[in-house]
Amino acid sequence: MKQLIITLIALVLAVSTKAQDFSYLNDIELNDKEQLKDAEEYVLDCCYYLTATRYDKKDVQRDRATAFVKAWLSKSEDLSALINEDVFLMTEERDDLKNLYLSCYALTVIENEGASQKEIEDGTLVSLLNYCNNPINKMKLTKELKRLVEVLEEGKLEAYLSK
Fold first, then answer.
1. Closest CA to 50 of 147, 132, 145, 149
2. Are 108 and 127 in contact (CB under 8 A)?
3. The pLDDT of residue 71 is above 90
């Protein structure tokens, strides 16, 4: 009887942790500034999910969350124009890294409202590097990003980026 109860509890916990569902995002409109501002809460949910879960290219929820974040950024013209192209290009035609970069960018912008562009860029890069450097996330880095991880671990990222 004890094993049955423990098994049921474990099953409920396992199902509830995998129950993240972003299908509701299809119903959210992003047509004007007010709707974009209202959608920030949902963007944060997506970004938290994307930066807290291990990368899995077969994860449908990851795809939905990423698509919503990208749509939100593309409609937020003032934000999409400020993306650091140098760092964005370091992702070398790798959609997984580009999507993660965009998620980190959106997360940094929303969490640090009123921050300078430099602070946003640095925060985005640190967030991206921390995610990629965590072996649990199974994200393969490009050569440029590996170098930036080394610089970050040495505590010299600020000086390296100002070159």
1. 132
2. yes
3. yes
